[in-house]
Amino acid sequence: MAGETITLLHGTSSSLVEFILQKGLKQPYLTDSEELAEYYAGVVSEDYGGSPVILKVTVGTAALLFDGCAMNEPVGYNGLKSDDLMAKISEEYGKLAIIHPEWTTRSGRDVLVSVPEKEYQISLSIVGSCRTNEIISPDRVERF
Q1: For residue range 69-87, what is the model confidence (pLDDT) as tens digits?
Q2: 69 touches 130 (CB < 8 A)
Q3: Distance (Å, rounded) from C-alpha 144 to C-alpha 108?
Q4: Is the whole model's pTM more than 0.85, yes or no?
């Protein structure tokens, strides 16, 4: 893996762990928050059975992408409820529109901000989540 790497967390179910440790992760969503990883591990465990498990994933930062889904429907964490986080997101988009006018378009009176996919740090810092379209090989995944 060339370039800078980062270790992030991925929440999953114990029923999927052995497969992941053998085959890797396909296009995972990742977080730097243990709280969010626990939340998503609980959701996956409800869907697939088993118990919540957190994995550590080492990935090249060049492969990380902005998580627009989490920005549109955030899960509250760090003491913030979803509504509070939505207000923070709106405020951050306002700042981004000023800093990066090239990312904005107008729709009537609204200003829309389209964050480039490679700007993973934005969603990671605001909602604690980013994603990758890559397959993360098993040698870069371990139990937390």
Answers
A1: 999 988 888 888 888 889 9
A2: no
A3: 48
A4: yes
